[in-house]
Design a protein that fits this description.
Blueprint lengths: L23 E7 L14 E3 L2 E6 L9 E8 L2 E9 L7 E3 L4 E2 L5 E7 L13 E8 L2 E9 L6 E3 L4 E2 L5 E7 L13 E8 L2 E9 L6 E3 L3 E2 L5 E7 L8 E6 L6 E7 L14 E2 L5 E5 L9 E6 L6 E7 L7 E3 L4 E2 L5 E7 L7 E8 L2 E9 L13 E2 L5 E5 L15 E6 L1
Antiparallel strand pairs: 1-32, 2-3, 3-4, 4-5, 6-8, 7-8, 8-9, 9-10, 11-13, 12-13, 13-14, 14-15, 16-18, 17-18, 18-19, 19-20, 21-22, 22-23, 23-24, 25-27, 26-27, 27-28, 28-29, 30-31, 31-32
Length: 410
């Protein structure tokens, strides 16, 4: 399951290499905690010139928020547009938001919904936020019930017909993972005035466990990774889910071994123009600190290549976000730890004749960010946007800070 790791071992590292960084970082908003929300675990979304995202905690009831950042002459101003109660409306929003053509927002929470499940906390919901004259209104699209999934956490994906697709980190086959379930892939379709959920695949451990965000190709196939399960039981997989004939078919493209090839993917995958897939693992590799990998179509099975094993320190460690290509074919992502002061970093991989070289594009220094966990996105000008789960001053008694929204210019 796509769990966030917010505890980082601090080490002292010289930061003389900072002068070599080509990029600059700008904190757009610093979270303050409590009713304003704090600990953003997911990345951000652009819509109509505004930035939208979620915080895992905070808000008036305290169980997370959806926020809007609006650009003004003096900077970015924040407005909380919804605060979760961890009741029927959900609680602890975790994955990235998505939008429809009408400007409505959709997302997931890992708790709340039907409180009969998971020790009274619920298995989470898919929610919709609709803007009206009196503000934003939240509607629960679906509340999970363990057997149809539990703890949805990845970004939701649209198809051309207006259906939503996503994953749950648990639930499904409750004989898997000691009764919690190994997760599902689901589809939500409009049905009358509501939505209907269809389970496309139930993971059972040997084919993966704890799926993270999906990627859809032009033929309707979905690609993704699981944080656990597979041939080696614990180390995760890369998979493809193909649309029916009679039923959706899951194919395991690669099963991690937990060694030099990596272990425990924490984010989804990205395509290149040849159809190869790129992603990261949180653990594994030569140093046990995660890798950037490439999985290439081949017969009879796909092959995996490690593009970079993280070494810690100024190299970064424990990559957590998605990967993005820039216009020149370079890859960008974030590492939860490492960097100049061990607060995490934005890294870049450059391809030269098939040889990939990693460099740190920016190293967070705690005051401007720490522990970048959420996915990253580009804007039209080639700037990178994301969140850190910690940074800034004391927050609710926690010295590590409440997190921020940042812009990075390469």
């Amino acid at each position: 399951m796509r769990l966030r790791h917010v505890s980082i071992t601090v080490s002292l590292v010289l930061v003389l290499a900072a002068c070599a960084w080509a990029g600059s970082e700008n904190v757009l908003y610093q979270f303050r905690g409590d009713r304003g929300g704090y600990l953003p675990q997911a990345g951000v979304l652009f819509m109509k010139g505004n930035i939208y995202g979620t915080t895992f905690y905070g808000g008036k009831p305290g169980w997370g928020t959806v926020y809007q950042l609006k650009h003004t002459q003096s900077g970015w101003s924040k407005k909380t547009i919804y605060g979760f109660t961890r009741g029927k409306d959900g609680g602890l929003p975790y994955g990235e938001l998505t939008k429809d053509e009408a400007g409505n927002l959709y997302g997931t929470t890992i708790q709340g919904g039907d409180l009969k499940y998971e020790y009274g906390t619920g298995c989470g919901v898919v929610f919709e936020l609709t803007q009206g004259p009196m503000g934003w209104k939240e509607t629960v699209v679906h509340a999970f019930h363990l057997k149809d999934g539990c703890m949805p956490s990845g970004e939701l994906v649209w198809d051309g017909a207006g259906n939503l697709y996503g994953t749950t980190g648990g639930g499904g086959d409750i004989s898997c993972a000691r009764g919690f379930g190994c997760g599902t892939v689901f589809k939500l379709s409009r049905s009358g005035a509501g939505w209907k959920l269809t389970t496309l695949h139930i993971f059972r451990g040997n084919d993966g466990a704890g799926p993270v965000s999906l990627l859809r190709d032009g033929k309707g196939n979905f690609y993704g990774a699981t944080g656990g399960g597979g041939t080696s039981v614990y180390y995760g997989t890369v998979f493809r889910l193909s649309p029916p004939g009679k039923a959706w078919k899951l194919t395991t493209l690669y099963s991690f071994t937990g060694g030099a090839d990596g272990s425990s993917p924490s984010a989804g995958v990205a395509f290149d123009q040849s159809g190869a897939l790129y992603g990261t693992t949180y653990y594994g590799g030569m140093n046990g600190l995660g890798v950037v990998y490439k999985v290439t179509p081949a017969k009879p099975t796909w092959t995996e290549t490690v593009l970079h094993p993280f070494a810690g320190g100024q190299d970064g460690e424990n990559p957590y976000s998605n990967l993005l290509f820039d216009s020149e074919g370079n890859l960008y992502g974030t590492a939860l730890g490492g960097g100049g002061e061990n607060n995490g970093a934005i890294f870049k991989l450059t391809n030269s004749g098939g040889v990939w070289t990693e460099s740190i594009a920016y190293s967070f220094n705690e005051s401007d960010g720490s522990a970048p966990e959420g996915d990253i996105i580009w804007d039209a000008s080639g700037n990178l946007y994301g969140t850190t789960s910690a940074s800034g001053d004391f927050c609710n008694g926690d010295q590590s800070g409440c997190g921020n929204v940042y812009e990075f210019t390469p």
